[in-house]
Structure prediction request, 168 residues.
Amino acid sequence: MPVDFFIAKCQIENVSDREFGICDDDDEGTKTHAYIDTEDRNKWIATVKNATDKPINFTAVDNCVEILKENGEMDFRCDAMLTNEDHIVFVELKNQAAGWITHAVDEQLQTSIDHFKANHDITKYKYKRAFACNKRFPNFRASYKDKMAAFYKKNNIRLNLTTEIVIK
Prediction:
């Protein structure tokens, strides 16, 4: 079943703010999707700094874009995607203490990228990146160089484990 990552109801187009946050409220019951915010930095899980003169499009993926497994069940999805004519950025947001990197990278980001590649032309983007952002760990002390290298080798997409997303 085809997956459209560019559904209008899931997008905010032409965001021209030089800096904004990506939020995902802790709401297991209502399952709302990620959104952008320019006011309340305390809610931000990731900070986007757009250092270009080009606006960026925000797409809520989890709880908005329907991605199904072959058996009809919902598949893993990353929280959001940022795009413009040059950039595509897949974003997974977390706010947890331990054991989150493998799930965020190997399941949520990877599955979203696989579905995107199966349904859209990712080669049209000059810069391709994926971010696993955890509000509790904005910067990492441990090195995940091997994981990042393996991710790049598999996807031709740079993996970043940080809460700051710089578009330049």
User: Anything to note?
Assistant: Helices lie at 101-119, 145-155. The chain is about 20% helix and 30% strand.
